[in-house]
Amino acid sequence: MSARRTAIFLTLVVLGVTASVLSYATAAGSVGYLLGYAVVVGLAWRSAVRRRRPDRGPGILIAAAITLWMTGDLIEAVQYYFFTVPPVGPSDVCWLGGYPLLAVALIQMARRRAPGQLRGAVLDGATLTMAGAMLSWQFLISPLLGSGESLATSVVPALYPVADVVLLAGVLIIALSPGGRGRPTQFLLGGVTVYLAVDLGYNLLPYVVSYDLVARLGPLVLAGNGLLVAALLHPAGAELLRPGARLRTLHAARVLFLGCALMTAPTLAILRSDPGGTEAAALAATAACAAFILARFTTAVREQERSQAQLAYQAHHDPLTGLANRTVLHDRLGETGEPVAVLYLDLDGFKEVNDRLGHEAGDAVLQAVATRLSAAVRQTDLVSRLGGDEFVLLCPGATEADAIELAERVLSDVAEPVPYRGELLHVGVSIGIASRSDAADSAPVALLRSADSAMYDAKRLGRGHWVLAAA
């Protein structure tokens, strides 16, 4: 489904949910709600089964979860209009059954999106989930279990907050792990957030508003389902299972959430007691210690990130000129699936400068040449130093004529004298040019070898020439 059709689908879902909220508890409203639900379920199954077999698992689990939730609503509607709705019944089995299916789908997606990179996300997610579980137990589960009702009418309602905690764990692992953050992932996280918000509203809002208003939250579940299905239908939906880049930095919000989770248990413990001055002071001291620990933790992580970034830069750049090195050149050559030109450069007269004035003068020449080459190319081109006085220019999308024009410009730029300690140093350059007009014309290594060979032909012609490699 195209992005435009996905947007139309979500617009229809919003209109349908709005109509269901306004017509709640009417026969027409219930029929319209269930028909809209059936369409969403049908689209979910259609999207799931049309995927490649290795990618079907999470989509099938999501479709099954939505189907169970629709079945629960259908059973309750039949009981409401033709029988009596019991406090606990088969609808609860269907509703509760959807939560673990969706949680497993989220975990499967996370494993596909971040293979071998989930340890940090799992640990942080477990920390935040534990904090959520403690809050849920304190304010939702414990009051239900201690309500004095029968076993079924006290335990089954308490299972919904437990299911929410399971779902929270799944969505946190997705949110905290590497992977794309495009529209499909946003729809996925948004859909699960709607479920959690609706369940939280069912438990907390009856304390402040009438139950008739709270009951109208029910159709909002369809909005969450619509977001999940939109994530599956979106043309970029493959990002839900595609491995993402490794996270290189620790987001400040992550540290803040971990700090809040760390303070959850002592805060609840003091709230359950009769808080006085001593308890408040203890809580404040605990919060200060937690802040200091997190600040030290963040400092250590930032230092490690800087060290890793420096090592990564050194591994891919020439330390003298700052240009890309041979590794980067070969990687870019292999990735360039389009017409490309390669210019292989070797300086003329560089050895004489080095022998007469020493390596410092040679380094000054290399740095000056590197600056001039970087200024001569386009932003999409790559300038690399292979070592010694050899440089390579990689120009994706450049034609043979473009490469020749660039070579002429480079000959002129490099021939300009280099100031060094009151003296003007003169060097030239010999250039070999190789190009391909189609991505399949020549292997990357063969293209570089052709340019290298043409450069030696240019050397034999004398100082300051370029030679085009034979086709």
Secondary structure elements and pairings:
Blueprint: H1 3-22, H2 27-49, H3 56-82, H4 90-113, H5 119-145, H6 151-176, H7 183-204, H8 211-215, H9 220-233, H10 252-272, H11 277-316, H12 326-335, E1 340-348, H13 350-357, H14 359-376, E2 382-387, E3 390-396, H15 400-415, E4 418-420, E5 423-425, E6 428-436, H16 444-461, E7 466-468
Briefly characterize the structure:
By secondary structure, this protein is an alpha+beta fold. The chain has 16 helices and seven strands. The chain folds into three domains: 3-247; 250-316; 326-468, Reverse transcriptase/Diguanylate cyclase domain (Alpha-Beta Plaits).
Report on this model:
The protein has 471 residues and is of the alpha+beta class. The chain is 68% helix and 8% strand. It has 16 helices and seven strands. It has helices at residues 3-22, 27-49, 56-82, 90-113, 119-145, 151-176, 183-204, 211-215, 220-233, 252-272, 277-316, 326-335, 350-357, 359-376, 400-415, 444-461, and strands at 340-348, 382-387, 390-396, 418-420, 423-425, 428-436, 466-468. A five-stranded mixed beta sheet has the order 2-3-1-6-7, with helices on both faces. A two-stranded antiparallel sheet has the order 4-5. Helix 2 packs antiparallel against helix 3 and helix 5 packs antiparallel against helix 6. The chain is elongated, with a radius of gyration of 33 Å. The two termini are 45 Å apart. The mean pLDDT is 88.
